[in-house]
Amino acid sequence: MRKTVFSPPAMVTIPVAGSDERFAVRRIFCAGKNYADHIREMGGEDTSRPPVIFAKPADALVSDGRDVPYPRASKDVHHEVELVLALGKPLRDASEEEASKAVYGIASGVDLTRRDLQTQAKKHGGPWTSAKAFDHSAPIGPITPLDGALEGLHGRICLRVNGDIRQDGDLAQMLWSPLRLLTYLSTLFDLKTGDLVFTGTPAGVGPLQIGDAVQAQVDGTEPLHFTMTATV
Ligand code: MN
Protein backbone atom coordinates (compact mmCIF):
# COMPACT_ATOMS: atom_id res chain seq x y z
CA MET A 1 0.00 0.00 0.00
CA ARG A 2 1.18 3.55 -0.76
CA LYS A 3 2.43 5.58 2.18
CA THR A 4 0.09 8.32 3.37
CA VAL A 5 1.24 11.67 4.76
CA PHE A 6 -0.84 11.16 7.93
CA SER A 7 -1.91 7.90 9.58
CA PRO A 8 -5.38 7.09 8.25
CA PRO A 9 -8.14 7.10 10.89
CA ALA A 10 -9.37 3.77 12.19
CA MET A 11 -12.39 2.28 10.42
CA VAL A 12 -15.62 2.99 12.32
CA THR A 13 -17.23 -0.27 13.45
CA ILE A 14 -20.29 -1.07 15.56
CA PRO A 15 -21.30 -4.26 17.40
CA VAL A 16 -23.36 -7.05 15.87
CA ALA A 17 -25.76 -8.64 18.37
CA GLY A 18 -24.84 -12.22 19.29
CA SER A 19 -21.50 -12.10 17.47
CA ASP A 20 -17.85 -11.20 18.08
CA GLU A 21 -17.73 -9.68 14.61
CA ARG A 22 -18.39 -5.99 14.07
CA PHE A 23 -20.10 -4.11 11.25
CA ALA A 24 -17.77 -1.77 9.35
CA VAL A 25 -19.62 1.47 8.60
CA ARG A 26 -19.14 3.36 5.37
CA ARG A 27 -21.66 6.28 5.31
CA ILE A 28 -24.82 7.36 7.13
CA PHE A 29 -27.85 8.53 5.17
CA CYS A 30 -30.90 9.88 7.02
CA ALA A 31 -34.53 10.48 6.12
CA GLY A 32 -36.47 13.32 7.73
CA LYS A 33 -40.23 13.91 7.71
CA ASN A 34 -41.18 10.24 7.38
CA TYR A 35 -43.92 10.08 10.07
CA ALA A 36 -47.05 12.27 9.71
CA ASP A 37 -47.43 12.95 13.44
CA HIS A 38 -43.85 14.24 13.62
CA ILE A 39 -44.38 16.48 10.55
CA ARG A 40 -47.42 17.96 12.33
CA GLU A 41 -45.61 18.54 15.64
CA MET A 42 -42.94 20.46 13.70
CA GLY A 43 -45.65 22.72 12.28
CA GLY A 44 -45.93 21.08 8.84
CA GLU A 45 -48.94 19.69 7.02
CA ASP A 46 -47.71 18.29 3.71
CA THR A 47 -47.23 14.53 4.00
CA SER A 48 -47.18 13.91 0.25
CA ARG A 49 -43.57 14.89 -0.47
CA PRO A 50 -40.65 12.48 -0.45
CA PRO A 51 -38.76 12.46 2.87
CA VAL A 52 -35.94 14.98 3.30
CA ILE A 53 -32.55 13.32 2.78
CA PHE A 54 -29.42 14.33 4.66
CA ALA A 55 -26.24 12.62 5.86
CA LYS A 56 -23.99 12.31 8.87
CA PRO A 57 -20.32 11.31 8.87
CA ALA A 58 -19.65 7.73 9.98
CA ASP A 59 -17.54 8.96 12.91
CA ALA A 60 -20.63 10.70 14.38
CA LEU A 61 -21.69 7.26 15.64
CA VAL A 62 -21.60 6.55 19.39
CA SER A 63 -21.80 2.82 20.16
CA ASP A 64 -20.85 0.21 22.75
CA GLY A 65 -22.77 1.98 25.54
CA ARG A 66 -20.55 5.04 25.52
CA ASP A 67 -21.79 8.35 26.93
CA VAL A 68 -22.78 11.19 24.62
CA PRO A 69 -21.24 14.58 25.46
CA TYR A 70 -23.80 17.38 25.22
CA PRO A 71 -23.06 19.03 21.84
CA ARG A 72 -21.38 22.41 21.97
CA ALA A 73 -22.80 25.36 20.01
CA SER A 74 -26.41 24.51 20.92
CA LYS A 75 -28.80 25.04 23.82
CA ASP A 76 -31.61 22.89 22.41
CA VAL A 77 -30.50 19.38 21.49
CA HIS A 78 -33.43 17.05 20.70
CA HIS A 79 -33.77 13.26 20.63
CA GLU A 80 -35.25 11.49 17.60
CA VAL A 81 -35.54 7.70 17.94
CA GLU A 82 -35.19 5.91 14.60
CA LEU A 83 -35.04 2.47 12.99
CA VAL A 84 -31.63 2.07 11.36
CA LEU A 85 -31.05 -0.17 8.33
CA ALA A 86 -27.56 -1.62 7.78
CA LEU A 87 -26.70 -2.54 4.18
CA GLY A 88 -24.87 -5.77 3.39
CA LYS A 89 -24.98 -5.25 -0.39
CA PRO A 90 -24.73 -2.32 -2.81
CA LEU A 91 -27.88 -0.85 -4.37
CA ARG A 92 -28.31 1.35 -7.44
CA ASP A 93 -31.69 2.07 -9.06
CA ALA A 94 -32.91 -0.93 -7.07
CA SER A 95 -36.33 -2.59 -6.98
CA GLU A 96 -37.97 -3.16 -3.61
CA GLU A 97 -37.17 -6.86 -3.99
CA GLU A 98 -33.47 -6.11 -4.50
CA ALA A 99 -33.56 -3.69 -1.57
CA SER A 100 -35.16 -6.30 0.69
CA LYS A 101 -32.24 -8.68 0.07
CA ALA A 102 -29.59 -6.01 0.63
CA VAL A 103 -30.42 -5.25 4.28
CA TYR A 104 -27.94 -7.07 6.52
CA GLY A 105 -29.58 -6.05 9.79
CA ILE A 106 -31.44 -3.43 11.79
CA ALA A 107 -30.65 -1.36 14.89
CA SER A 108 -32.11 1.25 17.24
CA GLY A 109 -30.60 4.69 16.74
CA VAL A 110 -31.09 8.28 17.80
CA ASP A 111 -30.73 11.18 15.36
CA LEU A 112 -29.55 13.90 17.75
CA THR A 113 -30.51 17.33 16.42
CA ARG A 114 -29.43 20.86 17.33
CA ARG A 115 -33.03 22.13 17.01
CA ASP A 116 -32.04 25.76 17.51
CA LEU A 117 -29.60 25.61 14.60
CA GLN A 118 -32.09 23.67 12.47
CA THR A 119 -34.74 26.34 13.04
CA GLN A 120 -32.28 29.03 11.88
CA ALA A 121 -31.34 26.96 8.83
CA LYS A 122 -34.99 26.48 7.86
CA LYS A 123 -35.60 30.23 8.22
CA HIS A 124 -32.76 31.08 5.86
CA GLY A 125 -33.16 28.13 3.51
CA GLY A 126 -29.68 26.91 4.47
CA PRO A 127 -28.40 23.35 4.75
CA TRP A 128 -28.95 21.25 7.90
CA THR A 129 -25.32 20.18 8.25
CA SER A 130 -24.56 22.00 11.51
CA ALA A 131 -27.94 20.93 12.94
CA LYS A 132 -27.55 17.26 12.10
CA ALA A 133 -24.03 16.15 11.19
CA PHE A 134 -22.10 17.16 14.31
CA ASP A 135 -19.76 14.99 16.38
CA HIS A 136 -21.51 12.35 18.54
CA SER A 137 -24.83 13.03 16.77
CA ALA A 138 -25.65 9.40 16.03
CA PRO A 139 -25.90 7.08 19.07
CA ILE A 140 -26.63 3.53 17.89
CA GLY A 141 -27.30 0.13 19.45
CA PRO A 142 -25.97 -3.23 18.21
CA ILE A 143 -27.06 -4.40 14.76
CA THR A 144 -29.40 -7.41 14.81
CA PRO A 145 -28.79 -9.47 11.64
CA LEU A 146 -31.95 -10.41 9.71
CA ASP A 147 -32.82 -14.06 9.14
CA GLY A 148 -33.79 -13.42 5.54
CA ALA A 149 -35.05 -10.62 3.33
CA LEU A 150 -36.50 -7.52 5.00
CA GLU A 151 -40.29 -7.75 4.92
CA GLY A 152 -42.81 -5.06 5.74
CA LEU A 153 -41.89 -3.88 9.21
CA HIS A 154 -44.23 -3.09 12.05
CA GLY A 155 -43.70 -2.95 15.77
CA ARG A 156 -43.09 -0.46 18.52
CA ILE A 157 -40.54 2.33 18.28
CA CYS A 158 -40.09 4.19 21.55
CA LEU A 159 -37.73 6.39 23.56
CA ARG A 160 -37.55 6.97 27.30
CA VAL A 161 -35.73 9.73 29.16
CA ASN A 162 -34.97 8.89 32.82
CA GLY A 163 -37.60 6.16 32.57
CA ASP A 164 -40.40 8.39 31.22
CA ILE A 165 -41.84 7.63 27.78
CA ARG A 166 -41.28 10.54 25.39
CA GLN A 167 -41.73 8.95 21.98
CA ASP A 168 -44.00 5.97 21.32
CA GLY A 169 -44.98 4.96 17.81
CA ASP A 170 -45.20 2.07 15.38
CA LEU A 171 -42.95 1.39 12.41
CA ALA A 172 -46.09 0.89 10.31
CA GLN A 173 -46.69 4.67 10.63
CA MET A 174 -43.77 5.42 8.30
CA LEU A 175 -44.97 7.39 5.28
CA TRP A 176 -42.27 5.75 3.15
CA SER A 177 -41.56 2.14 4.14
CA PRO A 178 -37.93 1.08 4.63
CA LEU A 179 -37.95 -0.63 1.22
CA ARG A 180 -39.47 2.34 -0.59
CA LEU A 181 -36.91 4.57 1.12
CA LEU A 182 -33.99 2.36 0.02
CA THR A 183 -35.34 2.25 -3.52
CA TYR A 184 -35.54 6.07 -3.55
CA LEU A 185 -32.08 6.53 -2.00
CA SER A 186 -30.64 4.15 -4.59
CA THR A 187 -31.80 6.52 -7.36
CA LEU A 188 -29.86 9.37 -5.71
CA PHE A 189 -26.70 7.57 -4.55
CA ASP A 190 -24.74 4.43 -5.35
CA LEU A 191 -25.48 2.79 -1.99
CA LYS A 192 -22.63 0.61 -0.77
CA THR A 193 -22.09 -2.28 1.60
CA GLY A 194 -21.59 -0.77 5.07
CA ASP A 195 -23.92 2.18 4.57
CA LEU A 196 -26.47 2.90 7.33
CA VAL A 197 -29.88 4.49 6.79
CA PHE A 198 -31.75 6.30 9.59
CA THR A 199 -35.43 6.12 8.60
CA GLY A 200 -37.10 9.03 10.43
CA THR A 201 -38.75 9.62 13.78
CA PRO A 202 -42.30 9.50 15.18
CA ALA A 203 -43.82 12.31 17.27
CA GLY A 204 -42.61 13.24 20.75
CA VAL A 205 -39.20 14.73 19.99
CA GLY A 206 -37.91 17.05 22.69
CA PRO A 207 -34.88 18.49 24.45
CA LEU A 208 -32.26 16.52 26.37
CA GLN A 209 -30.32 17.82 29.39
CA ILE A 210 -26.91 16.93 30.77
CA GLY A 211 -27.38 13.93 33.07
CA ASP A 212 -30.34 12.45 31.19
CA ALA A 213 -30.39 8.66 30.78
CA VAL A 214 -31.84 7.78 27.39
CA GLN A 215 -33.25 4.42 26.32
CA ALA A 216 -34.28 3.92 22.71
CA GLN A 217 -35.82 0.74 21.37
CA VAL A 218 -37.24 -0.46 18.11
CA ASP A 219 -39.02 -3.84 18.09
CA GLY A 220 -36.73 -6.59 16.84
CA THR A 221 -33.53 -4.86 17.90
CA GLU A 222 -31.42 -4.58 21.04
CA PRO A 223 -32.16 -1.48 23.12
CA LEU A 224 -29.80 1.49 22.97
CA HIS A 225 -28.80 3.15 26.25
CA PHE A 226 -26.75 6.30 26.67
CA THR A 227 -26.25 9.12 29.14
CA MET A 228 -25.78 12.76 28.22
CA THR A 229 -22.66 14.06 29.91
CA ALA A 230 -21.10 17.51 30.12
CA THR A 231 -19.84 19.13 26.94
CA VAL A 232 -16.24 18.19 26.13
MN1 MN B 1 -34.45 12.32 12.24
Detailed description of the structure:
This protein is α+β, with helices and mostly antiparallel strands and 232 residues long. It has a single domain (13-229), classed as Fumarylacetoacetase-like, C-terminal domain (Fumarylacetoacetate hydrolase, domain 2). 16% of the residues lie in helices and 32% in strands. The strands form five sheets. Strands 4-3-15-8-9-12 form a six-stranded mixed β-sheet. It has a five-stranded mixed β-sheet with strand order 6-18-17-13-14, with no helix packed on it. The termini are far apart. The site of manganese (II) ion (MN) has 7 residues, from β3.
Topology (elements, then pairings):
Layout: E1 13-15, E2 22-24, E3 28-32, H1 36-41, E4 52-56, E5 61-62, E6 68-69, E7 77-79, E8 81-87, H2 96-102, E9 103-110, E10 113-114, H3 115-124, H4 129-132, E11 138-139, E12 144-145, E13 156-161, E14 164-170, H5 178-188, E15 196-198, E16 206-207, E17 213-218, E18 224-229
Parallel strand pairs: 3-15, 5-11, 6-18
Antiparallel strand pairs: 1-2, 3-4, 7-10, 7-16, 8-9, 8-15, 9-12, 13-14, 13-17, 17-18
